[in-house]
Design goal:
Order of helices and strands: HHEEHEEEEHEH
CATH class of the largest domain: Alpha Beta
Helix content: 40-55%
Largest sheet: 5 strands, mixed
Radius of gyration: 24 Å
Structural class: alpha+beta
CATH topology of the largest domain: hypothetical protein tt1805
Number of helices: 5
Number of domains: 2
Distance between the termini: 40 Å
Oligomer: single chain
Strand order of the largest sheet: 3-7-4-5-6
Shape: elongated
Length: 236
């Protein structure tokens, strides 16, 4: 099981034991990804599932809109159809409460473990400016350098909209450009100069190098953390 849909609680077979099985299968898959040091997209999705579970506890009345309804009569005065939920009864709500009470602490526990792993990995990374930085560092290049790998991966980045939901407060769009081998004669500064010569739409790009002494997954871990660090650096 790779992911848990946002409407997992009301989707499919409405059986408490089955829903618990779905939750456990999802958490097992996420735990395996965390063991492999893969944090994205599981970490933000875990937070969303946890927060939605809390919202359900605080206002179960809004859940009625998520279930099918059947028309029961026509209100002549208001000229509207009146509907009745086909599934909302006390036993059903009790089952949902049971599932939510089962899921929330497990979502919370694994999210906290993932957040701790994020912080541990973050503490071992360095985001280093390469060369002179422009006054507006909203656009430029990101070099991913894993010291145990021969090649440096190069990405272009662009800061876009402000967002409270993004680490660092702004969304950072990242696109892969190419990979270059690092050597005595090809330093990070030389890589930047080479990029400027070949991609003239950025004559003075902000350029950062994210250095890691461990071979963490790039797409699932290093790039999400780099987005946060770049957004924070742009606001400094």
């Amino acid at each position: 099981m790779k992911r848990l849909e946002s409407d997992w609680l009301t989707q499919g077979w409405l059986d408490a034991e089955y829903k618990k099985y779905v939750v456990m299968a999802y958490l097992h898959a996420v735990q395996q990804n965390f063991s492999d040091k893969k944090l994205y997209p599981d970490l933000p999705e875990l937070r969303q599932h946890y927060e939605k579970g809390l919202q359900f506890r605080q206002g179960k009345g809004t859940l009625k809109a998520a279930f099918p309804k059947k028309p029961v009569r026509f209100d002549i005065k208001s000229q509207t159809l009146r509907y009745k939920s086909e599934v909302m009864d006390n036993d059903f709500l009790a089952d949902l409460d049971d599932v939510v009470d089962f899921a929330i602490p497990r979502f919370q526990k694994l999210f906290q473990e993932g957040q701790q792993l994020w912080n541990e990995i973050l503490s071992g990374l360095s985001l280093i400016p390469i060369g002179l930085m422009p006054l507006r560092p909203e656009e430029g290049y990101l070099l991913i350098h894993r010291t145990r790998q021969a090649e440096t991966q190069i990405y272009s980045y662009c800061l876009t909209l402000y967002s409270d939901g993004e680490p660092g407060g702004r969304y950072v769009h990242i696109r892969y450009v190419e990979s270059m081998p690092k050597s005595v004669h090809r330093t990070f500064e030389n890589m930047k100069l080479d990029l400027v010569r070949r991609y003239r739409h950025l004559p003075n790009p902000a350029t950062y190098m994210l250095e890691s002494n461990w071979n963490y997954p790039v797409q699932e871990t290093l790039l999400p953390i780099a987005r946060q660090l770049i957004a924070q650096a742009a606001q400094a």
